[in-house]
Amino acid sequence: MHPSMAFSLITILSLISILCIPSSSSQDTLQLSLTPISNPHIAASQQSESQTNQHPWMQTVNYLASSSLARAHHLKNPKLNSSASTSAIPLFPVGYGGYSVSLSFGSPAQKLSFVMDTGSSLVWFPCTKRYQCYGCDFSTGNQTGISKFIPKLSSSVKILGCSNKKCGWVFGSTDPVQCNGKEICPAYILQYGSGSTSGLMLSETLKFPEGDVTDFVVGCSIISTRQPSGIAGFGRGPASLPVQMGLKKFSYCLVSHRFDDKPVSSDLLLVRSSSGSSTKDIGVSYTKFHKNPVTSRTSFADYYYLNLRKITVGGKPVKISYDFLVPGSDGNGGTIIDSGTTFTFMDDHVHNLVAKEFENQLSKYHRAVDVEKMSGLRPCFNLTGKSVELPELMFHFKGGAKLTLPMADYFSFLGDSGVLCMTIVSSNRVGSGPKTGPSIIIGNYQQQNIYLEYDLEKERLGFKKQICK
Ligand SMILES: *[C@@H]1O[C@H](CO)[C@@H](O)[C@H](O)[C@H]1NC(C)=O
Ligand SMILES: *[C@@H]1O[C@H](CO)[C@@H](O)[C@H](O)[C@H]1NC(C)=O
Ligand SMILES: *[C@@H]1O[C@H](CO)[C@@H](O)[C@H](O)[C@H]1NC(C)=O
């Protein structure tokens, strides 16, 4: 999903009044947390010092600082110990095309499910009894079935103050938010690929059996459109779950979508210390993340860009120009990996080349053009009564790592029609207009049965084909 942000269309006041209804009884449970803004000059000078740590005394200071931090961390999280530095949360495939995780917030804990989304950064939940969601009657449930966080039932909830520097996170600006005398952080509005959400930022405790994360910034959404549940942002922005928790890495292996809405899951691993986890790194290939040169567009800074160099179909290179594979100086183009997108998206230029190559290599099969028109997928082949051998689809990354997708990740039979279609979509635009945003978005359908490790410490993605269940 690609969110973009805008300041309040809905006035903050109307949201507050919704939050506080019924006002008198809930008033005292929503405290204002007003933290002074940290001095940016102090922060900057600390940063530059830590970068010039050639002096022996500086190393000592660094050592002391890090051991103090480790000690403080230990004291603040008494339940955390080295054997419990990894949390495992079940990840379920769901009918609306995503994967969901349950997280517990508040005291006492309220457990809610979230779409796990590596393409955005805010974590938010449907919030208060008054939560309204338009166009949310998905196959898996109805609006009244959406579970909501009830702030007034938690003793640890606070509304994020406007002068708190975390308030700026969701607005993607490094400058302090203009508060103009307002005490609380302004309402956020996030637009996703489809749908939107809006609400107020809270500071709340995020609970794990291995230890609590206090002062976690989370969105309390009051109004949404087309959202099946809350979203747990696993992107690269400061508000994302991995960044707020200071994770060293996280990893998952998505089970097949044929288990959608069934009690079948695999573990999402959250690794808090580099030594703590038993990484399954035997046979794992790695490729470095790529930084988009443009950071002023918030969403570009949220994405995990990959250094894709080449795509081959049946061993034959598809001639894709470089600026589609890696973002250009204007920030557009490039390849990202996104668990919140269902089918991989390719810009028309890329999609046409890939589809043509499959069409050439599968030319002895009968194209199902009618089905292509109806489904929007291409190419499709009528294989009724035939068996087929499909060419391999392989992504080649800088440094030599190669990802061969499992066949079921890029070709699927549509129901029992005997028609097989490539499950990669394009915008189907006529001609080639200017490209905006990533040109290739590797969606969760193309991640099924692949172990994926987001190594945040070493800035790289690890992958290995395996059966996730
Ligand atoms: C450390 O973590 C393990 C695994 O969760 C747990 O069984 C053990 O009781 C913990 N030890 C302490 C001292 O909390
Ligand atoms: C909606 O979901 C709720 C809770 O799961 C259920 O009680 C209710 O019957 C459902 N309503 C409809 C119209 O399906
Ligand atoms: C596929 O081919 C079979 C036999 O050739 C035919 O009966 C069937 O209608 C075709 N299906 C579609 C969807 O075109």
UniProtKB/TrEMBL annotation:
One of its GO terms (biological process) is proteolysis. Residues 99-464 form the Peptidase A1 domain. GO terms for molecular function: aspartic-type endopeptidase activity. PROSITE patterns: PEPTIDASE_A1. It comes from the Eukaryota. SUPFAM superfamilies: Acid proteases (SSF50630). InterPro entries: Aspartic_peptidase_A1, Pepsin-like_plant, PEPTIDASE_A1, Peptidase_aspartic_dom_sf, Plant_Aspart_Prot_A1, TAXi_C, TAXi_N. Residues 1-26 form the signal peptide. The keyword Signal applies. The active site is at D117, D338. One of its GO terms (cellular component) is extracellular region. Keywords: Aspartyl protease, Glycoprotein, Hydrolase, Protease, Signal. Belongs to the peptidase A1 family. This is Peptidase A1 domain-containing protein. It comes from Mikania micrantha (bitter vine).
